[in-house]
Amino acid sequence: MDDPGSRSLSLAAFADQVAGCTKCPLAEGRTQVVFGSGNADADLMFVGEAPGFHEDKQGVPFVGAAGKLLEQLLAGIGLTRDEVYIANCLKCRPPGNRDPMPDEIEACESHLWRQIELIQPRVVATLGNFATKLLSAKPTGITRVHGQEQETTLGGRRVLLYPIYHPAAALYTPRMLDVLQSDFRRIPELLGRELEPPAQMLAEVAAEPAVQLGLF
Ligand code: URA
After folding, report:
1. How far is the CA of 61 from the centre of ligand 1 (A)?
2. Ligand 1, pocket residues at CB < 6 Å
3. How far is 133 from 139, CA to CA, in rounded Å?
4. How far is the C-alpha of 19 from the C-alpha of 30, rounded, in Å?
5. What is the 167 CA–ligand 1 centroid distance (Å)?
6. Secondary structure, 3-state, the chain
7. Pocket test for ligand 1, best of 55, 92, 93 (most atoms within 8 A of CB)
8. One pLDDT digit (tens) per residue for the chain, 216 residues
């Protein structure tokens, strides 16, 4: 268990480093890096796609229309955005809000892995296709996997990866809202799940008695 406030300090120090990132050409067109926001000790982390116009101006993820809907969905399960952590796959706005490109995701992903390592969330909810494919390391799209949690190792820890539709999808297709609400309703139960320790830790524990028995 870390000292109180230590995650928040480490995360702030890391945000300062990332603020000057020039790993990809998006650095040239941005107003600022949109690192992430919320509670550094959160058990629940959301990962979206990339900052849009408003996020780029304000330096905070999900402050536009999709963000308002995300806040409403959170309120529906008794949470506020200050109790969770919100980040994106890309930290800089793609021009004209176009889709992220593979080389941009590749250049930026180490920032997200480090955020996950520092925050140590129990549940990582991926919003939409880009975050879901990146964090699951699988090509299966959100339509097939939404609402289906999968246990995986991220940032050296076991987490529940929980793919859900991007809230922007419900802005354009209102019946999506029902699906999103019903997928959100499962989050409190997922936060209470016990997770297996990482495979490496299990292997170490399993190896211990054998070492003591002089088998190696
Ligand atoms: N959409 C995203 O994926 N991220 C944001 O920060 C805003 C809109």
Report:
1. 6
2. 48-52, 55, 61-62, 64, 66-67, 88, 168
3. 6
4. 11
5. 9
6. CCCCCHHHHHHHHHHHHHCCCCCCCHHHHCCCCCCCEECCCCCEEEEECCCCHHHHHHCCCCCCHHHHHHHHHHHHCCCCHHHCEEEECCCCCCHHHCCCCHHHHHHHHHHHHHHHHHHCCCEEEEECHHHHHHHHCCCCCHHHHCCCCEEEEECCEEEEEEEECCHHHHHHCCCHHHHHHHHHCCHHHHHCCCCCCCHHHHHHHHHHHHHHCCCC
7. 55
8. 677 689 999 999 999 999 999 999 999 999 999 999 999 999 999 999 999 999 999 999 999 999 999 999 999 999 999 999 999 999 999 999 999 999 999 999 999 999 999 999 999 999 999 999 999 999 999 999 999 999 999 989 999 999 999 999 999 898 999 999 999 999 999 999 988 775 555 555 455 443 343 322
What's the whole-model pTM score?
Answer: 0.91
Strands (E) located in the chain: 37-38, 44-48, 85-88, 123-127, 150-154, 157-164
Domains of the chain (ranges; CATH) run 6-212 (3.40.470.10)
